[in-house]
Amino acid sequence: MRLRYVRDYYDLSQKEVAKVLNVARSTYSLWEAELNVIPLNRLIDFCNYFNVSMDYVLGLSIKPRYKDMKKVVDFNLHRKRLRRIRKENNCTQVELAEVLNTDNGVISRYENGKYLILTSFLIAFANYFNISVDYIMGRIDEPEQLKVKVKN
Q1: Nearest in space to 121 (alpha carbons), one of 144, 142, 97, 90
Q2: Which terminus of the chain is more solvent-facing, meaning fewer CB atoms within 10 Å of its CB: N or C?
Q3: Which CATH superfamily is domain 75-136 in?
Q4: What pTM was estimated for this model as a whole?
């Protein structure tokens, strides 16, 4: 992840970024050190504050931002895109659950909007289907293929 790179670029301290994200500095530092995974809602806040793409921050793209990138995430759209992408790739919920190392009930709850997808699952999903996290989350309207794949 590029949390530290983005923070350093803007010459901010961990404490200052933690305040923006409304978390303790120690919590933020664990995300930056990649000892914990940043929750999706905080990732969105981070990306919006710095006007960078989620793909860039997650190390999935070398593009810092996309043209016409939105700050508002459409959580209803993201669940539909998860389902559509899975189905377009002829992948069942059971098969996807295997890839994400979970059970198909979790996939069903993500696709039905019962749960917000975990950041780690979102990264794995994007990698598996080679599709932009920003697209999945509705921050961009056109699908982007990943330029970089994260090793799981």
Answers
A1: 97
A2: C
A3: lambda repressor-like DNA-binding domains (1.10.260.40)
A4: 0.91
What pLDDT shows up at residue 149?
A: 56
Instruction: Say which CATH topology domain 3-57 has.
Output: 434 Repressor (Amino-terminal Domain) (1.10.260)
Asked if pLDDT for residue 85 goes beyond 70, the answer is yes
Phi-psi category of 102—alpha, beta or left, where left has phi over 0 and alpha has psi -120 to 50? beta
Domain ranges for the chain = 3-57, 75-136
Report the distance separating Cα 37 and Cα 27, nearest Å. 10
For residue 143, the model assigns a pLDDT of 87
Looking at residue 36, its amino acid is N
Q: Find tokens 């806040």 and name the residue.
A: 45
pLDDT 10s digits, 14-48: 999 999 999 999 999 999 999 999 999 999 999 99
